[in-house]
Specification:
The chain is α/β, with parallel strands linked by helices and about 260 residues long. The chain has one domain (about 1-255): P-loop containing nucleotide triphosphate hydrolases (Rossmann fold). It has nine helices and twelve strands. The strands form three sheets. Strands 6-7-8-3-9-10 form a six-stranded mixed sheet, sandwiched between helices. It is globular and about 60 Å long.
Length: about 260
């Protein structure tokens, strides 16, 4: 079952085409990876799929309904969006920031319920941010803040999570941890779409990959189908060693391709 479908998505800025006729499907139970070099259009596609920006053309369906027909409340309950380099700008405690994730399920006159508090506790435990609960969030490191903002998303219990480079500021332990909880989220008949630059992480954790290049969809499929020597050399301009094992596909960049023009 498709949780989300995008057909012929296009977007331009000042007459310059950023995305051209992109098709993307996200099925229940899948962790989807958006990959491609800098400027390929990955973050733009994520903003369009979450309705942070509006496409110039194409249709986006969420649970079979045109996403533009859904109310802001419906979308906030169904979708969680972790922006690139997500940071908190308010001097609140970590616990208070995570509690904000429950707002889509509350009325303005309501205090947090017992269920709300349980969801907040679960989200902080899941992201291993319980130890920070009484810290002012703006005093945390960039990586710690990313985990807190991810906890806020999990507190909201969205069906579909979009995350733009969620592991970019994290150490190896937390990179694996974040990818594991996003994969587990997808396994619960939900889904997640993640922008990644680490091709080995994308190969290990994602069910399918969409490889973008110059605003167009170059190819999509399983990690084994997408992450070939030829595709990586053509799109990224690097020669690489691609190996397969029981843990999945591993990609090691070796050298740049001469005369490659990004």
């Amino acid at each position: 079952m498709n949780l989300l479908s995008g057909k012929n998505i296009s977007f331009s800025i000042d007459g310059i085409s950023i995305l051209k006729n992109i098709d993307v499907d996200v099925k229940a139970g899948e962790l989807i990876g958006l990959i491609g070099p800098n400027g390929a259009g990955k973050s733009t596609l994520l903003r369009l799929l979450t309705q942070v920006a509006q496409p110039d053309g194409g249709d986006i369906l969420l649970n079979g309904k045109n996403i533009q027909t859904l109310s802001a409340e419906e979308k906030s309950r169904l979708i969680g969006y972790l922006t690139q380099g997500a940071r908190a700008h308010w001097p609140f405690t970590v616990e208070k920031i995570v509690e904000l994730g429950r707002l889509p399920w509350q009325r303005w006159w309501q205090d947090s319920s017992v269920e709300d508090k349980q969801k907040v506790e679960y989200a902080m435990a899941l992201t291993e941010t319980v130890a920070y609960r009484n810290r002012i969030v703006t005093t945390l490191s960039g990586g710690e803040q990313t985990l807190v903002m991810l906890a806020r998303i999990f507190a909201a219990e969205p069906q579909l999570i979009f995350a733009d480079e969620p592991v970019a500021t994290l150490d190896p332990y937390h990179q694996l941890h974040v990818m594991e909880i996003l994969r587990d989220h997808a396994r619960e008949k939900k889904s997640a779409v993640v922008v990644l630059h680490d091709l080995s992480l994308a190969a290990r954790f994602c069910d399918r990959l969409y490889l973008l290049n110059h605003g167009a969809l170059y190819c999509h499929g399983t990690p084994q189908e997408v992450l070939t020597d030829e595709n990586i050399a053509t799109v990224y301009g690097v020669k690489s060693v691609v190996s397969c094992s029981e843990s999945g596909v591993s990609v090691t960049p070796v050298s740049r391709v001469k005369d490659h023009h990004p």
